[in-house]
Amino acid sequence: MANKKIGKQTIKLSSPPTISSVYSIVGKKEGEGPLAKYFDMILEDEEWGEKTWEKTESKMVKECVAGCLGKEKLSNEDVDYLLSGDLINQCVPSSFGIRERQIPYFGLFGACSTFVEGLSLGAMLIDGGMADNIICSTSSHFCSAEKQFRFPLELGTQRPPSSQWTVTGSAAALLKSSGNGPFITHVTTGKIIDMGIKDANNMGAAMAPAAVDTLWQHFEDTRRDSNYYDLIITGDLGQIGKEIVLELMESRGFHLKNNYNDCGCLIFDSKKQDTHAGGSGCGCCATTFSRISLSSIKK
Amino acid sequence: MKPIETKVDYQKFVDEKTPNSPIGINLLKAFTIGGTICLIGQFINDFWSGRGLSQEASATATSITLIGLGIFLTAINVYHKIGKFAGAGSIVPITGFANSIASPAIEFKSEGFILGVGAKLFQIAGPVLVYGISTSIVIGIIYFMFTANG
Protein backbone atom coordinates (compact mmCIF):
# COMPACT_ATOMS: atom_id res chain seq x y z
CA MET A 1 0.00 0.00 0.00
CA ALA A 2 1.37 3.34 -1.02
CA ASN A 3 0.31 5.08 2.18
CA LYS A 4 2.67 8.03 1.78
CA LYS A 5 1.25 9.13 -1.53
CA ILE A 6 -1.07 12.10 -1.57
CA GLY A 7 -2.97 13.17 -4.64
CA LYS A 8 -1.73 12.06 -8.03
CA GLN A 9 2.03 12.59 -8.04
CA THR A 10 3.14 13.68 -4.59
CA ILE A 11 4.70 11.79 -1.71
CA LYS A 12 4.49 13.12 1.82
CA LEU A 13 7.47 11.86 3.77
CA SER A 14 6.57 10.77 7.29
CA SER A 15 10.05 11.29 8.73
CA PRO A 16 11.55 14.01 6.54
CA PRO A 17 15.31 13.79 5.99
CA THR A 18 17.62 16.75 6.48
CA ILE A 19 19.85 18.25 3.82
CA SER A 20 22.77 18.38 6.19
CA SER A 21 25.54 19.95 4.17
CA VAL A 22 26.47 20.79 0.63
CA TYR A 23 29.81 21.28 -1.07
CA SER A 24 30.07 22.96 -4.46
CA ILE A 25 32.78 23.65 -7.02
CA VAL A 26 32.26 25.94 -10.00
CA GLY A 27 34.26 27.09 -13.01
CA LYS A 28 35.90 30.46 -13.56
CA LYS A 29 32.97 32.04 -15.41
CA GLU A 30 30.48 31.00 -12.70
CA GLY A 31 32.93 32.37 -10.14
CA GLU A 32 32.74 35.75 -11.88
CA GLY A 33 28.94 35.72 -11.65
CA PRO A 34 26.63 37.22 -9.03
CA LEU A 35 26.65 34.12 -6.79
CA ALA A 36 30.43 33.79 -6.43
CA LYS A 37 30.47 34.13 -2.64
CA TYR A 38 28.19 31.12 -2.16
CA PHE A 39 30.47 28.52 -3.72
CA ASP A 40 33.01 26.47 -1.77
CA MET A 41 35.60 26.44 -4.52
CA ILE A 42 36.10 28.37 -7.75
CA LEU A 43 38.39 26.90 -10.39
CA GLU A 44 40.97 29.13 -12.03
CA ASP A 45 40.77 27.54 -15.47
CA GLU A 46 38.76 25.00 -17.43
CA GLU A 47 41.24 22.14 -17.14
CA TRP A 48 42.15 22.04 -13.43
CA GLY A 49 45.41 20.31 -14.34
CA GLU A 50 43.75 17.49 -16.30
CA LYS A 51 44.25 16.48 -19.92
CA THR A 52 40.58 16.15 -20.91
CA TRP A 53 37.36 17.97 -19.96
CA GLU A 54 35.87 14.65 -18.84
CA LYS A 55 38.74 14.10 -16.41
CA THR A 56 38.27 17.61 -15.05
CA GLU A 57 34.58 16.98 -14.52
CA SER A 58 35.35 13.69 -12.83
CA LYS A 59 37.79 15.45 -10.50
CA MET A 60 35.07 17.99 -9.65
CA VAL A 61 32.72 15.19 -8.57
CA LYS A 62 35.49 13.51 -6.60
CA GLU A 63 36.42 16.70 -4.74
CA CYS A 64 32.79 17.67 -4.09
CA VAL A 65 32.04 14.34 -2.45
CA ALA A 66 35.28 14.64 -0.46
CA GLY A 67 34.36 18.19 0.56
CA CYS A 68 30.88 17.17 1.64
CA LEU A 69 32.18 14.26 3.74
CA GLY A 70 34.86 16.56 5.16
CA LYS A 71 32.28 19.09 6.33
CA GLU A 72 30.40 16.34 8.14
CA LYS A 73 33.53 14.54 9.35
CA LEU A 74 32.18 11.29 7.96
CA SER A 75 34.06 8.44 6.32
CA ASN A 76 33.07 6.26 3.36
CA GLU A 77 31.67 3.55 5.65
CA ASP A 78 29.17 6.00 7.17
CA VAL A 79 27.47 6.59 3.83
CA ASP A 80 24.80 4.08 2.82
CA TYR A 81 24.32 5.14 -0.78
CA LEU A 82 25.73 7.54 -3.29
CA LEU A 83 23.36 8.85 -5.97
CA SER A 84 25.09 10.65 -8.77
CA GLY A 85 24.77 11.53 -12.43
CA ASP A 86 25.85 13.95 -15.13
CA LEU A 87 25.44 14.64 -18.85
CA ILE A 88 28.25 12.59 -20.33
CA ASN A 89 28.05 9.12 -21.94
CA GLN A 90 27.68 6.35 -19.34
CA CYS A 91 27.86 8.99 -16.60
CA VAL A 92 31.64 8.70 -16.70
CA PRO A 93 32.42 11.79 -14.56
CA SER A 94 30.26 10.41 -11.74
CA SER A 95 31.37 6.80 -11.81
CA PHE A 96 35.08 7.64 -12.25
CA GLY A 97 34.85 10.42 -9.69
CA ILE A 98 33.57 8.15 -6.93
CA ARG A 99 35.09 4.79 -7.86
CA GLU A 100 37.70 4.82 -5.11
CA ARG A 101 35.16 5.44 -2.36
CA GLN A 102 33.56 1.99 -2.44
CA ILE A 103 30.13 3.35 -1.51
CA PRO A 104 27.06 1.57 -2.99
CA TYR A 105 26.16 3.68 -6.01
CA PHE A 106 23.07 4.45 -8.03
CA GLY A 107 23.91 6.12 -11.35
CA LEU A 108 21.27 8.62 -12.41
CA PHE A 109 20.50 10.26 -15.70
CA GLY A 110 17.95 13.02 -15.41
CA ALA A 111 19.88 15.56 -17.50
CA CYS A 112 19.38 18.97 -15.90
CA SER A 113 17.10 17.51 -13.21
CA THR A 114 19.69 15.05 -11.91
CA PHE A 115 20.41 16.84 -8.64
CA VAL A 116 16.75 17.09 -7.65
CA GLU A 117 16.13 13.55 -8.89
CA GLY A 118 18.90 12.42 -6.55
CA LEU A 119 17.49 14.37 -3.61
CA SER A 120 14.00 12.98 -4.31
CA LEU A 121 15.14 9.36 -4.48
CA GLY A 122 17.54 9.81 -1.56
CA ALA A 123 14.78 11.29 0.59
CA MET A 124 12.51 8.36 -0.25
CA LEU A 125 15.24 5.83 0.57
CA ILE A 126 15.83 7.46 3.96
CA ASP A 127 12.14 7.88 4.73
CA GLY A 128 11.55 4.27 3.77
CA GLY A 129 14.06 3.16 6.38
CA MET A 130 16.62 1.99 3.83
CA ALA A 131 19.45 4.35 4.79
CA ASP A 132 20.66 6.98 7.26
CA ASN A 133 23.23 8.90 5.24
CA ILE A 134 23.05 9.43 1.50
CA ILE A 135 25.20 11.58 -0.75
CA CYS A 136 23.58 13.07 -3.86
CA SER A 137 25.97 14.59 -6.35
CA THR A 138 26.03 15.82 -9.90
CA SER A 139 28.19 17.72 -12.33
CA SER A 140 28.33 19.44 -15.68
CA HIS A 141 31.18 21.10 -17.56
CA PHE A 142 30.69 23.65 -20.34
CA CYS A 143 33.44 22.20 -22.53
CA SER A 144 32.53 18.52 -22.14
CA ALA A 145 28.84 19.31 -22.74
CA GLU A 146 29.61 21.31 -25.90
CA LYS A 147 31.76 18.45 -27.13
CA GLN A 148 29.10 15.86 -26.34
CA PHE A 149 26.03 17.67 -27.64
CA ARG A 150 27.01 20.57 -29.87
CA PHE A 151 30.07 21.71 -31.78
CA PRO A 152 33.82 21.81 -31.13
CA LEU A 153 34.77 24.86 -29.08
CA GLU A 154 36.99 26.29 -31.82
CA LEU A 155 34.25 26.20 -34.47
CA GLY A 156 33.28 29.71 -35.55
CA THR A 157 29.51 29.75 -35.01
CA GLN A 158 27.00 32.21 -33.61
CA ARG A 159 24.73 31.37 -30.69
CA PRO A 160 21.12 32.56 -30.97
CA PRO A 161 19.64 34.76 -28.20
CA SER A 162 17.55 31.85 -26.86
CA SER A 163 20.55 29.57 -26.29
CA GLN A 164 21.78 28.82 -22.78
CA TRP A 165 25.23 28.36 -21.32
CA THR A 166 26.08 25.02 -19.68
CA VAL A 167 27.32 25.66 -16.16
CA THR A 168 30.70 24.29 -15.20
CA GLY A 169 29.92 23.15 -11.71
CA SER A 170 29.49 20.24 -9.40
CA ALA A 171 27.79 19.86 -6.04
CA ALA A 172 27.37 17.10 -3.49
CA ALA A 173 24.73 17.13 -0.76
CA LEU A 174 24.49 14.91 2.28
CA LEU A 175 21.02 13.73 3.28
CA LYS A 176 20.64 12.52 6.85
CA SER A 177 17.80 10.69 8.55
CA SER A 178 18.03 12.99 11.57
CA GLY A 179 19.03 16.62 11.89
CA ASN A 180 17.80 20.15 12.32
CA GLY A 181 16.77 20.85 8.75
CA PRO A 182 16.26 22.10 6.15
CA PHE A 183 13.97 19.12 5.57
CA ILE A 184 12.60 17.49 2.47
CA THR A 185 8.94 17.06 3.34
CA HIS A 186 7.24 16.38 0.01
CA VAL A 187 8.33 15.04 -3.34
CA THR A 188 6.29 15.73 -6.47
CA THR A 189 7.72 13.93 -9.46
CA GLY A 190 7.06 15.47 -12.84
CA LYS A 191 5.96 13.84 -16.09
CA ILE A 192 7.40 14.31 -19.54
CA ILE A 193 5.39 17.04 -21.20
CA ASP A 194 6.34 17.42 -24.84
CA MET A 195 4.72 20.45 -26.41
CA GLY A 196 6.53 19.88 -29.67
CA ILE A 197 9.39 22.38 -29.40
CA LYS A 198 12.05 21.19 -31.85
CA ASP A 199 14.52 24.06 -31.55
CA ALA A 200 17.59 22.68 -29.77
CA ASN A 201 18.61 26.25 -29.00
CA ASN A 202 15.47 26.98 -27.03
CA MET A 203 15.57 24.47 -24.20
CA GLY A 204 13.80 26.81 -21.78
CA ALA A 205 10.68 26.79 -23.94
CA ALA A 206 10.92 23.00 -24.35
CA MET A 207 11.12 22.36 -20.60
CA ALA A 208 8.77 25.05 -19.27
CA PRO A 209 5.47 23.16 -19.83
CA ALA A 210 6.75 20.26 -17.71
CA ALA A 211 7.74 22.68 -14.95
CA VAL A 212 4.28 24.28 -15.08
CA ASP A 213 2.59 20.89 -14.96
CA THR A 214 4.67 19.74 -11.98
CA LEU A 215 4.17 22.96 -10.01
CA TRP A 216 0.44 22.91 -10.68
CA GLN A 217 0.19 19.24 -9.72
CA HIS A 218 2.12 19.94 -6.52
CA PHE A 219 -0.34 22.67 -5.51
CA GLU A 220 -3.25 20.38 -6.39
CA ASP A 221 -1.89 17.40 -4.44
CA THR A 222 -0.87 19.35 -1.36
CA ARG A 223 -3.93 21.64 -1.50
CA ARG A 224 -1.63 24.60 -1.09
CA ASP A 225 -1.60 27.92 -2.86
CA SER A 226 1.58 29.29 -4.41
CA ASN A 227 1.60 32.01 -1.69
CA TYR A 228 2.33 29.31 0.88
CA TYR A 229 5.94 29.31 -0.30
CA ASP A 230 8.62 31.92 0.36
CA LEU A 231 10.54 30.76 -2.69
CA ILE A 232 9.67 28.56 -5.63
CA ILE A 233 12.68 27.76 -7.77
CA THR A 234 13.14 25.87 -11.03
CA GLY A 235 16.39 24.38 -12.32
CA ASP A 236 17.52 25.85 -15.61
CA LEU A 237 14.68 27.24 -17.70
CA GLY A 238 16.56 30.49 -18.28
CA GLN A 239 14.98 33.85 -19.08
CA ILE A 240 12.58 32.62 -21.74
CA GLY A 241 11.47 29.54 -19.81
CA LYS A 242 10.98 31.61 -16.66
CA GLU A 243 8.71 34.06 -18.44
CA ILE A 244 6.73 31.20 -19.96
CA VAL A 245 6.27 29.58 -16.54
CA LEU A 246 5.08 32.88 -15.03
CA GLU A 247 2.50 33.40 -17.79
CA LEU A 248 1.28 29.82 -18.01
CA MET A 249 0.87 29.63 -14.22
CA GLU A 250 -0.95 32.94 -14.31
CA SER A 251 -3.37 31.47 -16.86
CA ARG A 252 -4.02 28.63 -14.41
CA GLY A 253 -4.71 31.08 -11.62
CA PHE A 254 -1.38 31.07 -9.76
CA HIS A 255 0.49 34.33 -9.30
CA LEU A 256 4.18 33.56 -8.94
CA LYS A 257 5.60 37.02 -9.67
CA ASN A 258 6.83 37.62 -6.11
CA ASN A 259 8.19 34.27 -5.03
CA TYR A 260 9.38 32.50 -8.16
CA ASN A 261 12.83 32.40 -9.72
CA ASP A 262 15.00 30.15 -11.85
CA CYS A 263 18.57 29.01 -11.13
CA GLY A 264 19.52 29.59 -14.78
CA CYS A 265 18.63 33.27 -14.38
CA LEU A 266 20.49 33.62 -11.07
CA ILE A 267 23.87 32.04 -11.72
CA PHE A 268 25.06 34.41 -14.46
CA ASP A 269 24.69 38.08 -15.18
CA SER A 270 23.49 37.40 -18.72
CA LYS A 271 24.15 40.94 -19.94
CA LYS A 272 27.71 41.20 -18.67
CA GLN A 273 28.70 37.57 -19.12
CA ASP A 274 27.30 36.98 -22.61
CA THR A 275 25.34 33.90 -21.57
CA HIS A 276 22.23 34.77 -23.61
CA ALA A 277 19.13 33.19 -22.01
CA GLY A 278 20.98 32.01 -18.88
CA GLY A 279 22.70 28.98 -17.38
CA SER A 280 21.82 25.32 -17.86
CA GLY A 281 23.05 21.82 -17.11
CA CYS A 282 23.12 19.55 -14.06
CA GLY A 283 25.55 21.85 -12.27
CA CYS A 284 23.30 24.89 -12.68
CA CYS A 285 20.58 24.02 -10.21
CA ALA A 286 22.91 21.91 -8.06
CA THR A 287 25.33 24.72 -7.28
CA THR A 288 22.77 27.54 -7.23
CA PHE A 289 19.98 25.81 -5.38
CA SER A 290 22.16 24.18 -2.80
CA ARG A 291 23.94 27.37 -1.83
CA ILE A 292 21.29 30.05 -2.03
CA SER A 293 18.36 28.07 -0.76
CA LEU A 294 20.24 26.32 1.98
CA SER A 295 21.97 29.37 3.35
CA SER A 296 18.74 31.37 3.34
CA ILE A 297 16.66 28.54 4.78
CA LYS A 298 19.16 28.03 7.57
CA LYS A 299 19.01 31.72 8.40
CA MET B 1 -4.76 34.80 -21.13
CA LYS B 2 -6.49 31.49 -21.89
CA PRO B 3 -4.69 28.28 -20.90
CA ILE B 4 -2.70 26.86 -23.83
CA GLU B 5 -3.88 23.40 -24.87
CA THR B 6 -2.41 22.54 -28.26
CA LYS B 7 1.13 22.28 -29.59
CA VAL B 8 0.34 24.78 -32.33
CA ASP B 9 -0.83 27.39 -29.82
CA TYR B 10 2.22 26.77 -27.68
CA GLN B 11 4.58 27.17 -30.62
CA LYS B 12 2.94 30.53 -31.44
CA PHE B 13 3.24 31.61 -27.81
CA VAL B 14 6.92 30.58 -27.69
CA ASP B 15 7.65 32.42 -30.94
CA GLU B 16 6.27 35.59 -29.36
CA LYS B 17 8.39 35.10 -26.25
CA THR B 18 11.65 34.19 -27.97
CA PRO B 19 13.83 37.09 -29.10
CA ASN B 20 15.04 36.84 -32.69
CA SER B 21 18.64 37.20 -33.75
CA PRO B 22 19.30 40.79 -34.88
CA ILE B 23 19.18 39.99 -38.59
CA GLY B 24 20.02 43.47 -39.97
CA ILE B 25 23.19 43.92 -37.95
CA ASN B 26 24.18 40.27 -38.45
CA LEU B 27 23.88 40.64 -42.22
CA LEU B 28 26.00 43.77 -42.13
CA LYS B 29 28.69 42.07 -40.03
CA ALA B 30 28.64 38.97 -42.28
CA PHE B 31 28.93 41.13 -45.40
CA THR B 32 31.81 43.18 -43.99
CA ILE B 33 33.90 40.31 -42.64
CA GLY B 34 33.08 37.97 -45.55
CA GLY B 35 33.99 40.75 -47.98
CA THR B 36 37.21 41.46 -46.10
CA ILE B 37 38.23 37.80 -46.29
CA CYS B 38 37.57 37.87 -50.06
CA LEU B 39 39.58 41.09 -50.39
CA ILE B 40 42.50 39.50 -48.55
CA GLY B 41 42.10 36.54 -50.94
CA GLN B 42 42.39 38.94 -53.88
CA PHE B 43 45.60 40.43 -52.47
CA ILE B 44 47.03 36.94 -52.00
CA ASN B 45 46.01 36.07 -55.56
CA ASP B 46 47.75 39.21 -56.88
CA PHE B 47 50.82 38.33 -54.85
CA TRP B 48 51.06 34.85 -56.42
CA SER B 49 50.40 36.16 -59.96
CA GLY B 50 53.09 38.77 -59.36
CA ARG B 51 55.50 35.95 -58.62
CA GLY B 52 54.91 34.55 -62.06
CA LEU B 53 52.28 31.89 -61.44
CA SER B 54 49.64 31.29 -64.13
CA GLN B 55 46.04 32.34 -63.41
CA GLU B 56 45.03 28.78 -62.57
CA ALA B 57 48.09 28.10 -60.44
CA SER B 58 47.73 31.33 -58.47
CA ALA B 59 44.04 30.51 -57.75
CA THR B 60 45.14 27.16 -56.33
CA ALA B 61 47.94 28.80 -54.37
CA THR B 62 45.46 31.36 -52.98
CA SER B 63 43.14 28.59 -51.75
CA ILE B 64 46.05 26.82 -50.11
CA THR B 65 47.19 30.05 -48.42
CA LEU B 66 43.68 30.87 -47.14
CA ILE B 67 43.18 27.34 -45.83
CA GLY B 68 46.53 27.60 -44.06
CA LEU B 69 45.50 30.93 -42.55
CA GLY B 70 42.12 29.53 -41.45
CA ILE B 71 43.78 26.58 -39.71
CA PHE B 72 46.39 28.83 -38.12
CA LEU B 73 43.74 31.19 -36.73
CA THR B 74 41.74 28.19 -35.44
CA ALA B 75 44.80 26.78 -33.73
CA ILE B 76 45.64 30.04 -31.95
CA ASN B 77 42.07 30.31 -30.63
CA VAL B 78 41.06 33.29 -32.79
CA TYR B 79 38.83 31.97 -35.58
CA HIS B 80 35.86 31.16 -33.32
CA LYS B 81 35.94 34.75 -32.07
CA ILE B 82 35.77 36.01 -35.64
CA GLY B 83 32.96 33.50 -36.26
CA LYS B 84 30.98 34.69 -33.25
CA PHE B 85 31.11 38.21 -34.67
CA ALA B 86 30.76 37.49 -38.38
CA GLY B 87 28.48 34.44 -38.53
CA ALA B 88 28.07 33.31 -42.13
CA GLY B 89 30.68 35.90 -43.14
CA SER B 90 33.44 33.64 -41.84
CA ILE B 91 31.67 30.28 -42.36
CA VAL B 92 31.06 30.53 -46.13
CA PRO B 93 34.61 31.39 -47.35
CA ILE B 94 37.16 28.59 -47.65
CA THR B 95 38.70 29.68 -44.32
CA GLY B 96 35.45 28.57 -42.66
CA PHE B 97 35.76 25.16 -44.27
CA ALA B 98 39.30 24.92 -42.90
CA ASN B 99 37.97 25.92 -39.47
CA SER B 100 35.27 23.24 -39.63
CA ILE B 101 37.95 20.56 -40.10
CA ALA B 102 40.63 21.94 -37.81
CA SER B 103 38.28 22.49 -34.85
CA PRO B 104 37.13 18.84 -34.46
CA ALA B 105 40.77 17.79 -34.88
CA ILE B 106 41.71 19.92 -31.86
CA GLU B 107 38.63 18.92 -29.88
CA PHE B 108 38.94 15.16 -30.37
CA LYS B 109 42.72 14.84 -30.12
CA SER B 110 42.11 13.80 -26.51
CA GLU B 111 40.40 10.64 -27.78
CA GLY B 112 43.43 9.48 -29.77
CA PHE B 113 44.58 9.85 -33.35
CA ILE B 114 42.57 6.96 -34.85
CA LEU B 115 39.20 6.97 -33.05
CA GLY B 116 39.44 10.64 -32.08
CA VAL B 117 40.98 12.81 -34.78
CA GLY B 118 40.60 10.25 -37.58
CA ALA B 119 36.97 9.42 -36.91
CA LYS B 120 35.73 12.87 -35.97
CA LEU B 121 37.71 15.04 -38.41
CA PHE B 122 34.79 15.42 -40.81
CA GLN B 123 32.10 15.74 -38.13
CA ILE B 124 31.11 19.20 -39.39
CA ALA B 125 32.50 19.18 -42.94
CA GLY B 126 31.26 15.65 -43.73
CA PRO B 127 27.77 16.66 -44.97
CA VAL B 128 29.30 19.39 -47.16
CA LEU B 129 31.65 16.87 -48.75
CA VAL B 130 29.02 14.13 -49.17
CA TYR B 131 26.47 16.37 -50.87
CA GLY B 132 29.05 18.49 -52.67
CA ILE B 133 30.69 15.44 -54.26
CA SER B 134 27.33 13.71 -54.93
CA THR B 135 25.98 16.80 -56.67
CA SER B 136 29.08 17.17 -58.81
CA ILE B 137 28.83 13.51 -59.88
CA VAL B 138 25.18 13.98 -60.92
CA ILE B 139 26.00 17.20 -62.79
CA GLY B 140 28.96 15.44 -64.40
CA ILE B 141 26.72 12.62 -65.70
CA ILE B 142 24.19 15.14 -67.08
CA TYR B 143 27.00 17.10 -68.73
CA PHE B 144 28.40 13.90 -70.21
CA MET B 145 24.99 12.88 -71.66
CA PHE B 146 24.59 16.22 -73.38
CA THR B 147 28.11 16.44 -74.75
CA ALA B 148 29.08 12.79 -75.44
CA ASN B 149 27.69 12.74 -78.98
CA GLY B 150 28.67 16.23 -79.87
Descriptive report:
The complex is a heterodimer of chains A (299) and B (150). With 299 residues, chain A is an alpha/beta fold. Chain A folds into 2 domains: 11-176, Peroxisomal Thiolase, Chain A, domain 1 (3-Layer(aba) Sandwich); 186-298, Stage V sporulation protein AD (Peroxisomal Thiolase, Chain A, domain 1, 3-Layer(aba) Sandwich), CATH 3.40.47. Chain A has 10 helices and 13 strands. In chain A, helix 2 (53-72) packs across helix 3 and helix 6 runs parallel beside helix 7. The relative contact order of chain A is 0.19. The model of chain A has no long low-confidence stretch (mean pLDDT 94). With 150 residues, chain B is an all-alpha fold. Chain B has one domain (7-122). Helices cover 77% and strands 0% of the residues of chain B. Chain B has helices at residues 7-17, 23-50, 55-75, 79-86, 88-91, 94-107, 113-120, 126-147. In chain B, helix 3 packs parallel to helix 6 (94-107). The mean pLDDT of chain B is 94. The interface between A and B is medium-sized, with 30 and 39 residues.
Query: Between the first and last Cα atoms of chain A, what is the distance in angstroms?
Result: 38 Å
Q: Say how many strands of chain B there are.
A: 0
Helical amount among residues of chain A, as a percent range?
Answer: 25-40%
Q: State mean pLDDT of chain B (0 to 100 scale).
A: 94
Low-confidence stretches of chain A: none
> How many discrete structural domains of chain B?
1
Into how many domains do the coordinates of chain A divide? 2
Distance between the termini of chain B: 70 Å
Q: Looking at the chains present, what oligomeric state does this protein adopt?
A: heterodimer
Number of helices of chain A: 10
Q: Could you give the order of the helices and strands of chain A?
A: EEEHEHEHEHEHEEEHEHEHHEH
Question: Percent of residues of chain B in beta strands?
Answer: under 5%
Overall shape of chain B: it is: extended
CATH class assignment of the largest domain in chain A: Alpha Beta
- Physical arrangement of strands within the biggest beta sheet of chain A: 4-3-9-7-5-6
> How many DSSP-defined strands of chain A?
13
Contiguous runs where pLDDT drops below 50 for at least 5 residues of chain B: none
| Major interchain interface with per-chain residue totals | A-B, 30 and 39 residues
